[in-house]
Specification:
Elements (H helix, E strand, L loop, with lengths): L10 H16 L2 E2 L13 H11 L1 H11 L3 H14 L5 H7 L1 E2 L5 E2 L12 H8 L3 E10 L2 E9 L2 E8 L8 H11 L15 E5 L4 E4 L10 E2 L22 H6 L2 H10 L2 E8 L6 E8 L3 H17 L15 H12 L13 E6 L6 H9 L7 E3 L6 H9 L4 E5 L20 E5 L8 H12 L9 H9 L1
Parallel strand pairs: 1-4, 6-7, 12-14, 12-15, 13-14
Antiparallel strand pairs: 2-3, 4-5, 5-6, 7-8, 8-9, 10-11
Length: 461
């Protein structure tokens, strides 16, 4: 029988519950805290085991070069790459490291888009997930739980148990006032991807710990169109989705591969005119992750036969959600290993493509030539060329479609499938302009009769 919330009298009971679930249900290894290297934020034994199990030939070649200093050299080199301003933890985990000798080591294996490559699937299954409790990230400071991927720390968790009189707010205060955010474990961009503050009912997270000014976002499911989480009737632990879903192996690798990225922000000084660039790590909020997953899972089954409406309140990250969805739909495969969409169109109703949307889509990782933004330097013919070609993601204004209807390149689109993401569900995306999009992509004449929205406008008038 599942443990009930009222059976957890102390924080230690809560920790034990999570550890046992991660071990028994998710295949984690529970590691002793003394295996943690504070200066590296690594469990080097696990890291070296992963490298030996997945890249034995490369390890043997490196041993021929570095002799008895091989393991030390590898660990120090990986750490140095993570600490480079141009890289950081997410870049190193996703792309690995290349030594001066030309040999490369991968630090994780992504889940293949299809099941056609058994070797890729085998490598994916060899990723090692582990967890430690009561981890000293410095001499006199402990973190309740630290989660690792292939020996590298990726999440820190401070737990509070409501039955003992504390909640997530106490965990947030702990991060802000009692935790040194300059240690290797908690340092921005090189430390863990997210620091979680969690009790039995709610979860909050921070990607940039800066002491008292640290900002924590909620990571809750939401309840009755408001904040918080629905009651868990089975156990009474309303945040059980964290270890039952978010911290599962597949979900963590999905987050790393498709969601977590470094965003570059540009701010122009109004006095000097100089542009200052800052970088920050982006981690999805729960509603963003859920929205993208729901659409992705549905198109795997239904392809392009359905329409979807994603509602976001002001300031809730609509731009990132659109960007994540565009990139994921551009590569998603169905159960038969077929690519669902040839091209993803992100359409805005503005005169020029919104700069924030443009930067977000271009800022997410992609191969050269896969993304094309129809900015103010592009005309309708450029759009026609992109639609006809192999561009995976096209960002454009809806108005350009009105001027390409007679372009000869459009006659060759009938065998292509498109995902069309309308950035905003405004009235300007309907009627004549939307008919232009439909006609351009299908090469069919649109119904000359008035559509529903035209009739509504006429009645209003």
């Amino acid at each position: 029988m599942p443990i009930k919330a009222d059976q957890l009298k102390e924080k230690e009971d809560y920790q034990k519950l999570i550890l046992e679930h991660l071990r028994d249900d998710d295949g984690y290894r529970i590691r002793p805290a003394d295996k943690f290297s504070p200066g590296l934020a690594m469990d080097t034994e696990m890291l070296l085991e992963f490298l030996e199990n997945t890249q034995a030939d490369t390890m043997e070649s490196l041993r021929a070069i570095y002799k008895e200093r091989t393991e030390e050299t590898i660990i120090n080199y990986i750490n140095a790459e993570i600490n480079k301003p141009s890289r950081g933890l997410i870049d190193v985990i996703k792309h690995g490291v290349e030594f001066d000798s030309g040999y490369e080591l991968r630090l994780m294996y992504r889940k293949p888009d299809s099941t056609k490559n058994p070797v890729a699937i085998e490598h994916y299954n060899r990723n090692i997930f582990s967890v430690m409790e009561e981890v000293y990230h410095k001499t006199d400071e402990r973190i309740d739980l630290v989660l690792f991927l292939n020996g590298i720390a990726i999440f820190a968790v401070e737990l509070k148990c409501n039955t003992s009189g504390q909640n997530y707010e106490d965990a947030i205060k702990q991060y802000k006032n009692e935790r040194d955010c300059t240690t290797r474990l908690l340092k921005e961009k090189v430390g863990v991807f997210a620091a979680f503050a969690m009790d039995l009912n709610e979860v909050y997270f921070c990607t940039k710990l800066i002491g008292k000014d640290s900002f924590f976002n909620p990571f809750n499911i939401g309840y009755k169109f408001g904040k918080g989480n629905p009651h868990n009737d089975q156990s009474g632990i309303n945040v059980s989705y964290m270890w039952e879903d978010i911290w599962t192996k597949d979900k963590i690798l999905f987050l790393i591969e498709r969601f977590i990225y470094i965003k570059t922000k540009e701010r122009k000084n109004s006095d000097t005119g100089k542009v200052r660039r800052t970088k920050e790590l982006i981690f999805p909020r729960f509603h963003q992750l859920r929205a993208v997953e729901k659409v992705m899972n549905d198109v795997i089954l239904n392809h392009s036969s359905c329409n979807y409406l994603i509602e976001h309140s002001a300031g809730s990250g609509k731009t990132e959600t659109i960007s994540w969805l565009a990139h994921i739909l551009s590569t998603v495969h169905d159960a038969n290993n077929n690519n669902v969409f040839d091209t993803v169109l992100v359409i805005t109703d503005r005169i020029v493509v919104d700069r924030q949307l443009q930067e977000a889509i271009m800022g997410m990782e992609h191969k050269s030539g896969q993304v094309k933004v129809m900015d103010d330097k592009c005309d309708s013919n450029d759009l026609a060329i992109a639609l006809h070609g192999n561009t995976k993601i096209i960002v454009t204004t809806i108005h350009k479609f009105y001027y390409i209807l007679d372009n000869k390149l459009l006659t060759n689109l009938k065998d292509k499938t498109f995902a069309v993401l309308l950035a905003e569900a405004h009235s300007s995306t309907g009627a004549t302009f939307m008919q232009s999009v439909t006609k351009a992509l299908t090469n069919k004449k649109t119904d000359e009769a008035k559509n529903g929205e035209d009739k509504i406008r006429e009645n209003i008038q």
